[in-house]
Hints:
Radius of gyration: 22 Å
Oligomer: single chain
Amino acid sequence: MSRTSLRACAILACLMSLASASAVVQAGSGDGQRATRNGREIYAEFRAGLADPTCDTASSPRWRDHFAAAPSKMASPGSDVLPLFGYVVDALRAANLPTEFALIPFVESGYKPGARSASGPAGLWQMIAVTARDHHVPIHPGYDGRLSPVDSTQAAVRYLKTLHGMFAGDWRLAVMAYNAGEYRVFDALKRSGQVARSADPEKLTSMSGISQAYVRKLHALSCVLDQADDRDTWLQALDRPVPVLQAMTLPAGATHLDNWSAATGEDPAVVRRLNPAFSNGRIAQSNQPVQVLAPGVGNAIASGSNAAPMASAPAQPEANADASQPNPSVRTHVVGRGESLWTIARHYKLRVADLLSRNALDSRSVLRPGMVLRLDVGAATSDGGGE
């Protein structure tokens, strides 16, 4: 089996069965519990969404060395990098965009929401003020939306979606356009006698070396992360609960992030760190709804803050009664296309380990559409079984 095939299997296995206790999603249920997911789930989603998962030893060794520390930043439990990376990966996957784009904040800011450059760019995506305003990112006294992971990521994903469509779904051309502007890429294609659907970015000689290197940077970083799982200690470091960050709309009249955090059960230090757009934590009054990024909390809505995720997860099917079961009170679930043990467990507020046990499955089992899973304690009936 090829390395690519082995990696594909590893991704599927990770998505299907994160059976450790740390894989449990503690969904908010009004008691203030934070919603979490296993860090390996974020990593698997990233790899599953890559447009170009192929790597070889000759690909940009300079930039591989430059980004060699990126995996350790993701693995550090005291860092915000992995939760923020997961937030961006989720937004890109919801928009059907390649997850190579989730590496742009690594290159631009090291995934630091408050990063500022002396030349003017700011935030995760290092936008300049003119670009931010062109893409409807609010900037006004007391609030710089470039420093908001919510506002800046929404704008970046919208723009990348447009560029991806403009350039026939070629992520490399889209990245060049993100760096240099779409008109320069169109001009370079015309000068080289190429068209977007079959272009070779390396032959766009009229593009600046900086823009061409941008593609190499992202691909090299993608390879560094893709191959990081060769180290068991790194995978073990990812195998931990990671907060699922959500965009939440602040209630009208809110004046300070610390007060909102106290009312919703959030950690004020975390909320401030994730939302440097608010100067000193003060909430400037605005006629438009204002959002903050925070770990999901069950009592946020009850406190007046409406949860407003950038992209809602697709609704899961309701529990289906299994006519073959004599006890109708035992709930079952028919597996739908694209579902995993992790997503099913999350939907029903179960532990993945319990779902495995109740259906005589193990961590290597593969789900198939149409399988019937027992949700409650009882004899296993996974109808189609695992391998």
